[in-house]
Amino acid sequence: MADMYDKINELYDRRREIELGGGDDKIEKQHAKGKLTARERIDLLVDEGTFVELNPFIEHRCTDFGLEGKKGPGDGVVTGYGKVNGRTVFLFSQDFTVFGGALGEMHAKKIANVMDLAAKTGAPIIGLNDSGGARIQEGVLSLDGYGHIFYRNSIYSGVVPQISVIMGPCAGGAVYSPAITDFVFMVEKTSQMFITGPKVIETVTGEKISAEDLGGARVHNTISGNAHFSGATEEEVLAQVRKLLSYLPQNNEEKPPMGPIPDEDDYRPDLADAIPIDAVRPYDVRQVILQVVDEGSFMEVQKDFAKNIVIGFARIKGEVIGLVCNQPKFMAGGLDIDSSDKAARFIRFCDSFNIPIITFEDVTGFFPGVKQEHGGIIRHGAKILYAYSEATVPKLTVILRKAYGGAYVALNSKSIGADVVFAWPNAEIAVMGPQGAANIIFASEIEKSANPEETRAQKIEEYRQKFANPYVAAKYGMVDDVIDPRETRIKLIQALEMLRNKHEERPKKKHGNIPL
User: Fold this and answer.
1) pLDDT by residue (tens digit) across 253-286?
2) What sequence ranges are listed for the domain CoA carboxyltransferase C-terminal (predicted)?
């Protein structure tokens, strides 16, 4: 008769079998593709020795299409919790060595269970995706499983941070889970996302395209905007995930973790020469960002998508902030469809998780053109207005140079709820630029002039002196203070400290109807 030690030995034998996943041969094939196994990825993501597995003994119960009697350790997914930088996270890691990571009924049940625990305990949920899609043999049960995951992605949105890491194929309905989550990471060359694959597209439309060109990391980080970060290796990507988590609170009821407070002079003399005084000359707004935030703290989000706006996390005196900045280096910093979507979603994330928002503004307006108008720039641009207006976190704006027209209003102006607006002394705040305004206001006078070009130049300068400066807006309270650029960091530190206990309510409602 077996004693307790025999039972314990059996337990460990079973665990070892589960930990092998699909077996040595399939693990070798995974490695040959330049990919790590589900468990190797977990070991890289969480602090050493902290991972606790949940539901390891779950298996499928399908008896159709040859699955009867086929073992699938853990049903193709490893779930559990651990710590990243000493803080709890919940995660699932799909195991491509077991049924190609395909999602079935019990596979989905494991993921749903760990998502529920993350929400109950108030901790981030991270999904490491590497799956061939729905397990066809299980039919509608697979589809139902996806539904349970999508539902939780949706109702836990804004409750706990949700991060998706694409580390292999993610196709068909499976892509909607990452799309709902807050941030998507991809590995270059080995990860893809698409609704319909290359073969289906070729059959239906006749178009030929590779999986990488259709839905690889480059495509989603530069063209579609479906991803936020990418890296050359899985190790690099997982290190980025760890870094991102260091800026985020555990849940919507906490504030982000404080970082080290640097012992440095907050007066930044280089800011006086950071941008050209000539309003039409381009520059890189990152040079301003790096002068204002704590050294080495800026983590840019979606850096290769919609480059005319820069967003990301940073710290000022150790406090986490979200940055939304026009980028005059691209499209003169004008707002278009993609940049509007990029900024609005980031603003809403920051507001969901108590992260103050700082806006560096240098905007010519919304980008003109038939393509933009027909593409819905009105609807997309309205998202920025909505996101800023809805947000109740501390909201600060620094007008660096140009602030023209409706884009000025949209980018966290006082009228839509900014707590504090600063302007540099070279700022031009107006309905439009001096050139355009003078051509309209003084059109008749210029036309009748003996020297139209000279008159135009005079009127442009007249308009600039009268309206295109920060003092008219400051006179009416639309700018709280015109500041020395070198004191920008000091002023922001003071404002953030003043707003630390800000509390603002919105009218009671079920939810708003953002112009999606």
Assistant:
1) 999 999 999 988 999 999 999 999 988 899 999 9
2) 268-509
DSSP secondary structure letter of residue 181: S
pLDDT number for residue 184: 98
| pLDDT classification of 66: cutoffs 50, 70, 90 | low
Spans of all domains in the chain: 4-246, 269-431+469-499, 434-467
336-386, pLDDT tens digit by residue?
A: 999 999 999 999 999 999 999 999 999 999 988 999 999 999 999 999 999
Strands 299-301 and 229-231: unpaired
Res. 222: pLDDT tops 90: yes
Q: Please determine, looking at this structure, whether the domain spanning 4-246 carries the CATH number 3.90.226.10.
A: yes
Q: Is 122 a catalytic residue?
A: no
At 448-507, the pLDDT tens digits run 788 878 888 888 888 877 777 899 999 999 999 999 999 999 999 999 999 999 999 999
d(CA 166, CA 234): 10
User: Is residue 65's pLDDT more than 80?
Assistant: no
| 21 in catalytic set | no
259 is catalytic: no
Looking at this protein, which amino acid is placed at residue 449? S
Give the residues across from 193 on adjacent strands: 170
What whole-number distance in Å separates Cα of residue 335 and Cα of residue 367?
6
pLDDT on residue 316? 98
Options 122, 139, 147, 173, the catalytic residue: 173
Q: Where are the alpha helices (DSSP H) in 206-267?
A: 211-215, 217-222, 234-245
Q: Considering the candidates 259, 405, 406, 436, report the single residue annotated as catalytic.
A: 406
CA gap 488, 289 in Å, rounded: 10
CA angle at 206 for the pair 201 and 211, rounded to the nearest 5°:
40
Among the listed residues 317, 316, 315, 342, the one whose alpha carbon sits nearest the alpha carbon of residue 327? 342
The per-residue pLDDT for range 15-57, each reduced to its tens digit, is 998 888 888 889 999 999 999 999 999 999 999 999 999 999 8
Contact between 514 and 385 (Cβ < 8 Å): no
Given the residues 80, 100, 172, 365, select the one marked as catalytic: 172
Average pLDDT on 111-138 reads 93
In the numeric block, the tokens 């112009």 are attached to: 515
* Integer CA distances (angstroms), 31 to 114, 179, 230, 368, 395, in order: 27, 27, 20, 49, 47
Q: What is the DSSP string of 446-509?
A: HHHSSSHHHHHHHHHHHHHHHTSSHHHHHHTTSSSEE--GGGHHHHHHHHHHHTTT--------
Domains 4-246 and 269-431+469-499 share a fold: yes
Name the phi and psi angles at 229, rounded to 5. Answer: -145, 155
Q: Show Cβ contacts of residue 265 under 8 Å, excluding neighbours closer than 6 positions.
A: none
Alpha helix positions (H), 228-284? 234-245
| 206 has catalytic annotation | no
